[in-house]
Each structure stands twice: as C-alpha cells, then as structure tokens.
Amino acid sequence: MIHQLTFLFIGGTEIVFVLLVVVLVFGADKLPEIARGLGKGMRQIKDATNDIKHEISNSAKENNIIDTEVTQNVKEELNKVKDDLEDFTGSLKRNK
C-alpha cells in the first residue's frame, strides 16, 4: 500500500490551484521576492524560539531548577526498562 504525503490535508490539485491564484494575484515577477520574505520571516521566528529555549534552560540551570543528576538517573532507569521490555518482547514480535 502506497501512502501519499499530504501537507495540511491538502492534495496536489489544491496546491496547484493555490499557486495559480497566487501567481494571478501577485504576478510571476513578485513570487521570488515574496518567497524570500517568507523564508527570512520563518528563519527569524526559528531563531527567536531557539533563543527563548536557550534562555529558559540557562536560567533554570543558574537557579538549580533542573537537576541534571536526577534527570540522568531517570533516563538510565528508563533505558533499563526499555531494554528489559525489548528482551521480553523480542521473541513475541512478528516479522512483517
């Protein structure tokens, strides 16, 4: 069975129709400029969210809100449980 990838539940014909409308409204000569502006805007949003994430994690580390030892111990225990579960279910899994 082949699955077709859809973007926001929009099919290929709908995308072509939207692109046709955009070309009619803005003109073909303005499309690269619009795309460049959208790309820059998306990049600025991504950079801003990364800056916010780093600022939150840095301030949490400075205020000892995040205990790295505890999180490391929890990760190790979860990995042990995961490995045990994989060992147990390994013989039960079906090959597709």
List keywords for this structure.
single chain, 96 residues, mainly alpha, 3 helices, 72% helix, 0% strand, elongated
Poorly predicted ranges: none
- Overall pLDDT score: 78
Count of discrete alpha- or pi-helical segments spanning 4 or more residues: 3
- What structural class do the secondary elements suggest? mainly alpha
Order of helices and strands: HHH
Amino- and carboxy-terminal Cα gap = 13 Å
What is the makeup of the main sheet? none
**What percent strand?**
under 5%
Number of strands: 0
Question: What coarse outline follows from CA principal-axis ratios?
Answer: elongated
Radius of gyration: 24 Å
**What percent of residues adopt helix (DSSP H or I)?**
over 70%
Structure description:
With 96 residues, the protein is an all-alpha fold. The protein contains three helices and no strands. The longest helix is centred in the middle third of the chain and has 32 residues. The model has no long low-confidence stretch (mean pLDDT 78).
Secondary structure layout plus pairing:
Blueprint: H1 12-26, H2 31-62, H3 68-89
